[in-house]
Amino acid sequence: xxxxxxxxxERYAQVMQALVRCVARFGLEGASLTQIAAEAGLTRPLIxxxxxxxxxxxxxxxxxxxxxxAEQTEALIAALPGDAPAAALVEYLFADTTGSSPDMVLAFAxxxxxxxxxxxxxTACRESLLGFEAAIARVLRQDNPxxxxxxxxxxxxxxxxLYLNVASLAPLDMPQGWTQTAQTIAHKLxxxxxxxx
Length: 197
Fold this sequence. Notes:
Pfam families: TetR_N (PF00440). The protein is mainly alpha-helical. It has 2 domains: 1-52, Arc Repressor Mutant, subunit A; 63-196. 76% of the residues lie in helices and 0% in strands. The chain is built from 9 helices and no strands. Helix 4 packs parallel to helix 7 (119-143), helix 5 packs antiparallel against helix 9 and helix 8 packs antiparallel against helix 9. The longest helix is centred in the middle third of the chain and has 26 residues, at 54-79. The chain is elongated and about 55 Å long.
């Protein structure tokens, strides 16, 4: 008989969600253990136990955010239909019901800001973003086998840029037409791949 599962993993997830929310709101330098504890509804010593010192906290945030992005990308690609996956991808990325979290995008932005002074973090963030772009390019290439690689890569780059812009600015509660314009431009990028252009 298996023992009762520990609540350590559940507690750690709770701490990480609070960390992401605080970094999204206050930045890496502004997110304190006290704020994270209040956001998580836990004590400051328990937060310190899970996150350690500031450098440990940043490393934990990096691991959590980059691992979450990789998992979400894999799940998104796996869920695409066999017919017209590129159009479905654009619809998913710009839909109101998307699973992307503005807090995660803003936490990623905070990490990238710090990456200017941390070569390892810069490499990890760059690889994560380029991995996302490469996954988008694979979908576009699958749906448009006649298109040349340069066109596919350019379209994937544009779609990623549009998506990150929309996701990172979501807290501004931009008008619906603003997001729809980004989605329309992303579809135009797909249309540009039709016919091998």
